[in-house]
Structure formats: structure tokens, C-alpha cells
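Dig into this one:

. . .
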Amino acid sequence: MSRLTKFVAPEFVFGEGARKLAGQYACNLGARKVLLVTDPGVIAAGWLDEVISSLGEEGLPCTVFSTVTPNPKAEEVMAGAEVYRNEGCNAIVALGGGSPMDCAKGIAIVSTNHRHILSFEGVDKVEAPMPPLICVPTTAGTSADVSQFCIINNTQDKVKIAIVSKAVIPDLALIDPMVTSTMDPYLTACTGMDALTHAIEAFVSTGSSMITDIHALAAVRILSGSLIDAVKRPDDIVLRNKIMYGSLEAGLAFSNAILGAVHAMAHSLGGLLDLPHGECNSVLLEHAMAFNFNVAAERYNMIGEAMGLDLRGMNTTEKKKTILSFVNNLKQSIGINRTLSEMGVKTSDIPSLANKAVKDICIYTNPRKATKRDIEVIYEEAL
């Protein structure tokens, strides 16, 4: 109870229509010209024009940078930073899922710190404050809009790096569930499982606190109870609200408690094979939970209860089996059923994947200390 804890979060506006406030808030933050970072998928979905219109209503010109791919690459960040500088921008708005938001964070870091983005890997390496940054998430899962994480793909070394710093927290998140209505069911499933993984890993993290626990368990309750229906009924805005809110709660939790082995391993996978992050987390989650369970059984039992499971009268082995079965059945029910081998991972890839995963920042708050061989075994079980 007396342990020192720290909690950081941006200002956020949650609800239908939040996206339309981009211009007003950019103006409040002193913007003169905005770099609007997005991707082709978001443009095709039709959300870009609304944000440009919102900026225009405040008399704010903008330059669109949309050369962002899934798992944003370091070279994309550096190209975006050059556009930011050449166009004379002084603020950034990110519109999209985790990729545009992380790319926007990277551009913001580089624009004021004047070094290559890969040099900021690690904790608290960002010295100069970023320019004003507003995030408008279009997916419900990554929570990059409220987190102090920036994940960038180092294509040369084929690994995703984590930049963790209070400095990379956006100034504002405009969280509008309506924007997620153009997500297809599989993207809804993968990003929803990403959010659930955030919540679970944050709750069992060695960096958790009473404050992060509140948000993590709330996310588990909301997501585990709503995700199947949200995938089946993509036009139900009430369910979209629930999943977006669950993602927000999970983001507030993991941004402060950090994560664990699942994300360390998923970063390694995504860097090597450019795989969807949410799907990587989903495939690995139950296997990492099984590895960790005995050293954090009480915490996992609380997660199980938040999922709505009746664990009364069960011994530890029975509780473990019940909780892991729930996680497996959940992902199967929403169509996430590929194994790592079906995703293109080979047995020969595992030593390299494990070697990178044990160096990832997220591994340090995993509840059970994991050796390289431990991580290899988890990958092997997920094949």
C-alpha cells in the first residue's frame, strides 16, 4: 500500500463525434500547420476528409503523410520527419490504428531531437519534448493514443524496437467509437485480442499497482464479455463503444504497468516476418500464461473471475486449465485459429526470435524470469 507508484496519461475525449474536434484542439495547442499522418486504408475508409475539414474550419492548413505500412518502418519515420520539416509544420495529428500513431510519435521524436529514430530504443531516451500531437484512433486495441510506448520496425535487424518515455505520450486522444465501424471482423478480432493481452499482461506485470489494476480488470471484464458479439455484429455501435472503452482501459493499464513475455515475443515475430501484431499476441497469449501461471496464480485467478468464470472449489491445476481454455475458446470463436507455423514461422527461426525477445524491454516486467530457452519452448508450443 505504501509503495511509490506513478501514473501518466494524456487528456482524452471519448465518444461519438470526438474525431470532429481535431481542429479545435490543434488550434488550442498552438498549431499553425499540421502534419496529418495516416495510411491508405484509413483514407479508403473515408475518415481523412472529416479530419481535414475539422482543421480547415479553424483555418489550419495541413500536409498529409500517408506512406505508412503495417508495423511502421524506421525509414518511414525518417521520411515523415523530413516532410514535417520541409513543410514547416509545428504540430501533428495521427489518424489511424497503431501503425500511423506509432509512426506519428516517431516523427515527433525525430523532429525535435534531431537523431535517427532507432537511437531512442529503450526507456527514457527521448530528451527534448515532442511537438503537439493529437491521436485519433481508428481501431480498438493498440491504445497507442494513450500510451508511453512507440513501436518501430528496424528492418535492417528484422526486429521491432520499443521506445518508452513519458515524452511520447500524446497531448490529446480523440477516441471516437464510430470510426471503428469500418473495421472488418478479423481486424476487430485481432485488435480486440491485442487489447485483452494488454490488460492481462498489465495485471500480472511486476510493474503493476493498485491504480493500474483497476483499469486492467475493467478491461478484462469488458473485452471478454463483448468481443465475440462485436465480431459477429460489426454494425452494432453499442458494442463498438464497449470494445473501444475496453481498449482505453487496457491502454491506461499497460502504459503504466508495462507488459510481459507475450509482447516481447510478438515484437520479435512482427519484426522478422512483418506479421499482424494483434494476431501474434493472440497466438502466443495462452502459452505465455501457462508459463507464468504458477508464479502468479492468484493474479490469474482474479483475471479468470473478471472473465466471468466460476472458479470456486477448484484446485490450482483446475483453475489454470479453465482460464486457459477460456482464452483459447475466445480466440477460436472470433476466427483467430492459425498457428505460428501456419503464419510462416519455421523451427529454424526460433533461436533468433528468442534471442531478440529476451532483449525486449517488455520481458523485464514479466512475472516469471524467462531464459532464452524458456522463450524458445513457448514459441515451439505455439507452432
The mean pLDDT is 96.
